[in-house]
Design brief:
This protein is of the alpha/beta class and 394 residues long. 39% of the residues lie in helices and 24% in strands. The N and C termini lie far apart (48 Å). Bound molecules: P-hydroxybenzoic acid.
């Protein structure tokens, strides 16, 4: 009876009323996919979903005797309130076994407390600010973190004659993570950050920031913008303001030269060096099979990006959990299976750190080149087994 009272009180207070795992559907494994399917970040939802489709094309839509059912929910952009409402709906109404997706950090941060409250494993398929996995013991990340993919470019640049850098980042958690990680690692190598600006997340006009960077006369501009359309706008401003002509290089984590928009950016990207965890040009049998399944599932000529591969690996992890638990889903047991999980991803070997539930993976150094008529990030060096350095920063 006292339980009833508590429930009534919570309901009256208008707070979330979330059932325990036992009430969930039988015969299916339900995965609620919360992502950006419309608006300026619509490419994120599309790539994540397409990566999942590629996995299901290869492995079928049943595992451990249960049908895997996806329930799609559109956050429409960086909208924490919407993300939270959608996740709540998936938990209470659809009774999902997992919540997954999350292209953007603000959406993931808004939902993490619900994962704890409802005891629902939450599989991050892109959102990359370091802090996310600390927000709930039910969060595991299959994408990357900004410090993880930024430190390698700082080390590589310092070793390759770049001494002065001007940094430009989006003014939200992932951008600030990137700015801090670059400053820390580059300075530790004797490099100098000669100026830093943060640009708005929504509709940034890059021209004045790029001009400031040019005026500071650095050897290179470090850039982090969320992948997609903003990369196109940034590279355009960089080219129009004549930075390449002035001998200033463009460096950063690979988001700016996202595979999804690389062709649209064209010639000015040739030669850009970045570090990242996935390139569509990654040379391995697993990636060749992934590219084939991706094209079969999503159309000839389509190209997966790093969000697609995280969608692919995230759903692979869900299948692994289902197999290990013989279809009897349980949040705590699922998390135990995920902690320490190792997969051979299309990007290379990956592992989930059992302590942080964050991904450990190889980060590659790549250069944009023309390959068989298309523009690709061609990998030429690598940093194996990189953990998220953001968690150990002071
Ligand atoms: C994020 O919001 O966490 C995010 C979005 C796009 C990226 C990287 C990180 O390219």
């Amino acid at each position: 009876m006292s339980n009833m009272k508590t429930i009534a009180a919570v309901a009256c207070a208008g707070a979330a009323l979330l059932p325990a795992a036992s009430a969930r559907a039988e015969g299916t494994i339900k995965v609620g996919l919360v992502a950006e399917f419309s608006g300026p970040f619509a490419g994120y939802g599309k790539q994540i979903q397409n990566g999942i489709k590629a996995y299901m094309k290869q492995h079928g839509d049943t595992v451990a005797g249960k049908k895997v059912e996806l329930v799609l929910k559109d956050t429409t952009g960086p909208s924490p309130e919407i993300a939270k409402r959608l996740a709540q709906d998936l938990i209470t109404h659809d009774k999902v076994d997992f919540i997954a997706g999350f292209g953007l950090t603000p959406n993931a941060l808004a939902v993490a407390p619900l994962a704890t409250q409802a005891k629902t494993p939450m599989i991050i398929m892109n959102a990359a600010s370091s802090i996310i996995t600390t927000k709930s013991p039910y969060v595991a990340r299959f994408s990357m973190t900004l410090p993880q993919v930024t430190e390698p470019i700082a080390l590589w640049s310092a070793k390759n004659g770049i001494k002065k850098v001007f940094t430009i980042v989006s003014d939200y958690a992932p951008g600030i993570d990137a700015e801090n990680a670059f400053l820390k690692s580059f300075s530790a190598q004797g490099g100098q950050v000669v100026g830093s600006v943060r640009v708005p997340l929504r509709n940034p006009d890059f021209a004045p920031f790029v001009q400031r960077a040019k005026d500071a006369k650095p050897d290179a501009v470090f850039i982090f913008v969320p992948a997609g359309e903003q990369g196109i706008a940034f590279v355009k401003a960089f080219t129009e303001r004549g930075l390449q002509k002035a001998g200033i290089k463009l460096i950063g984590p690979g988001d700016v030269v996202d595979d999804d928009v690389l062709e649209a950016m064209g010639e000015p990207t040739l030669g850009i060096i970045t570090t990242h965890h996935y390139s569509a040009a990654h040379d391995s049998p697993e990636n060749a099979a992934f590219r084939k399944a991706y094209a079969e599932a999503n159309g000839e000529g389509t190209r997966p990006n790093f969000m697609a591969v995280a969608g692919y690996d995230g759903i692979a992890a869900i299948y692994e959990v289902a197999k290990k638990l013989e279809g009897k889903m349980d949040a705590d047991r699922a998390m135990e299976v995920i902690k320490g999980m190792k997969l051979t991803s299309p990007r290379g070997p990956i592992q989930i750190d059992p302590e942080t539930r964050d991904i450990v993976q190889t980060v590659y150094v790549r250069r944009v080149e023309r390959v068989k008529g298309g523009l690709y990030n061609v990998e030429f060096d690598k940093f194996p087994d990189v953990k998220d350095p953001g968690k150990t920063a002071p």
